[in-house]
Amino acid sequence: MPAPIILDCDPGIDDALAIAFASGHPGIDLLGITTVAGNVGVDKTTANALAVSEFIGAAGTPVTAGCAVPLVRPALDAREVHGESGLGGAVLPPSRGAPAPGHAVDYIIGTVAAAPGEITLVATGPLTNIALAVRREPRLAGWVRNFVIMGGSAGRGNTTAAAEFNMWADPEAAAVVFGAGWTVTMLGLDVTLRTSASPAVLQRMRELGPLGTTLLLPALGSYRAGPAGGARGARPRGASTAGPAVHDVCAVSWVAQPGLFRLVPAHVAVETTGVLTSGMTVTDFTVGTGAGNALVAMDIDVEGFWELALRTYAGVAARLGGAQQGG
Ligand code: BDR
Ligand code: CA
Fold first, then answer.
1. The model's pTM
2. Does the chain have fewer CB atoms within 10 Å around its N or its C terminus?
């Protein structure tokens, strides 16, 4: 039976690719998408989620809008990486659909509460919605099957030297979420920066018909312009200079094939007061198995990841029609 998930995201180029993956992988049942302000404002992330869903033939997936601003700080975006629209160079027809009624936080709580122990919550944007959800309904932490994020880093950041974008954008929310009593599966820059789309990967995307030529390639083409395919600031050590890293796809690929990643138990604390280190995920690996609040990904089978992603996108392309033979 496919794993039911809710995807909380801020599309966002790599979020868009994560939506396409989640909707196309046969082992995943994408119950709903919730949106948050991050890469661009929440009006745009919501419009993008709707447009992407419709473009990939998943218009029936409900998209529920969430928070427009972080818990405490003013909203800061990543337009310089994701473009004014949030989808880089991809120009999709605007969706004919509308967001689902209600707020993302209520959708998350209500949907997970209706099927305790079954639903995996995946977050690929700032953690504002998730923090409010666990504050409003602390039992959520025990009701999810798994909670997985793209965010943070056990090493350096991509937005500042210390912080990864999703943590940096709303550190107070991230601190609440890591303290909520669940085990956070953290797929951070330690692994996501290794998912650069190589020329060979881009070539295979080119063979996917409209999915490749209208969404994947135009989106990634301009993403490449951002430092390390991430956000502003220093390029973390070990970051590839090759192509754009598809950070958020890691989170959904973990649901489909967790064996691609090596997870290490840790205690993660989020810095909220540091002048230079705000949003840093301070990761302590000395906790030992079964302790701590997180499982932190420290290695990824990059080849296996891309085989999985391209196979999944080929399935989406086939659903849309127009994929070239061999794509
Ligand atoms: C993360 O930040 C955003 O810009 C991307 O969508 C991804 O979620 C990478 O640091
Ligand atoms: Ca994102």
1. 0.94
2. N
